[in-house]
Amino acid sequence: MSAAYEVLSLDELDRVPVAEGLEWRPIRRRLGIRSFGTNAYTSERVGGWVVEEHVEGSGHEELYVVVSGRARFTLDGEELDAPAGTIVFLPENDVTRKAVAEEEGTTVLAFGGWPDRPFEPSQWEWYFEASEHEPERAIEIMREGIAELGERGWLLYELARHEARAGRRDHAREHLTKAVELEPRAAERAGGDEHLRELLP
Amino acid sequence: MSERGWEVAALEQIVGPRARHGFDWHPVRRHFGIASFGVNANVAREAGDVVVDEHDEAGGDGGQEELYVVLRGRAKFTLDGEDVELAAGTFLFVRDPAVKRGAVALEPGTALLAVGGRPGEAFVPSSWEHARFAVELSERGDNEGAVRLMEQALAERPEHAGNLYNLACFESLAGRHEDALAHLQRSIELDAAYRGYARDDDDFAPIRARPEFERLVAT
Asked: Which of residues 32-61 of B touch A (CB under 8 A)?
């Protein structure tokens, strides 16, 4: 992407179903933003997730902005009513966070980055997107991620998984082996995956 | 920052100095102490109000990419002379720092979020953020407070001509005339444009008659 500027509406963002009604709407990747992370999350149904329950393993500090509807955040067990216009900041990465939609069509924007080092995109951006596609396209997406970030454990793991789905067992075995070298937790995850279990080194 | 590890605010609870052209400026980054990217909100009171001052990101601290999000209302941006109308729920990503950008509100209450950072660099707050608060303190008569803020800005960006100049302004007003002369001299050494600014700047009225000042601003 090389235009000097670009305009995009919320309605034009992709919708990648993740879990429990949560749709991931990639912004950073779509626009090619390189200095901070940002995505939108929408649930079209009341009770659906707009922030998946997680701690921020990356170490990012995170800012959430409720842009439409109404969300209910749960932050380390404490509930917070968040109508549109509410801004929530989490500097601590170990706070367990989650939010559900209290109205249909609730959308939350998320922004993140590290306080002390340059931003780089998260590996999950590629494997979330790849998860929506048939194996050959998913493999292309994972290769794009490796081209941008270099060889990382989870990128290689997901590449291996899609290669295994596509029947490319030799490639899958090679990439899974490398993934486990870089990210030992990948072995445990592969043990629970029907495509990768038998390819473990 | 609270002990609970998170903070919450509505936009209206984040109050900052009113901007030069009249929009309400909500300093989100500074309010929360966000250290990884810049983020502020601008809210216009009336249709026709400026809601983004015309600027580019090539000068000053330089190099920021910016994402604008229209949260409420409607805004007309002008980008290198081209007009673009944006409704609520629209994103404008300005990738090229050299693009001249500005916006006016097309509806009362139009609200924008502006988020920015420099690719490949750890985030450092923009100097203008400190300067804007320092001006507010000075206007309330707290020139010592303004000096302290600009000293903080200078610590974050040492040898920054704009920070040195602004520090000199507030030192002049605070009666620290020797410090003002020293910092003004350094700002001019780093960027000769500040010589011209200083000639007409009322902040230097307390030291204008000093021979050292006259020498500094002489062509």
From this structure: 32-37, 39
B173: part of which helix (H) or strand (E)?
helix B161-173
Q: What is the ipTM of this complex?
A: 0.88
In a shared domain, residues A148 and A74:
no
Look at chain A and report how many structural domains it folds into: 2
What confidence tens digit (pLDDT) does each residue in A158-181 have? 999 999 999 999 999 999 999 999
CB–CB contacts below 8 A, A to B = 157
**By the CB < 8 Å criterion, does A77 face chain B?**
no
Tokens of B144: 């010592």
In a domain, A91, yes or no: yes
Helical residues (DSSP H) of chain A, grouped into ranges: 28-31, 124-130, 135-149, 153-165, 169-182, 185-191
Statement to judge: residues A14 and A107 lie in one domain:
yes
Confidence of residue A201 (pLDDT cuts 50, 70, 90): confident
Q: What share of chain A in percent tops pLDDT 70? A: 99
Q: Residue A43 falls within a domain, yes or no? A: yes
Domain boundary among B117, B136, B157: B117
* A135 and A195 part of one domain: yes
CA distance A40 to A197: 34
Query: With an 8 Å Cβ cutoff, are A85 and B10 in contact?
Result: yes
Residues in A touching B79 (Cβ below 8 Å): 4-5
Q: Does B79 touch chain A (CB under 8 A)?
A: yes
CA atoms within 13 A on the CB side of A146: 20
Could you give the CA distance from residue B184 to residue B199 in angstroms, rounded to a whole number?
11
Note whether residue A72 is domain-resident.
yes
Can you give the three-state secondary structure of A25-78, one letter per residue? EECHHHHCCCCCEEEEEEECCCCCEEEEEECCCCCCEEEEEEEECEEEEEECCE
Same structural domain, B19 and B95? yes
Angstrom distances, CA of residue A8 to CA of A18, A28, A160, B68, B117 = 22, 12, 33, 10, 19
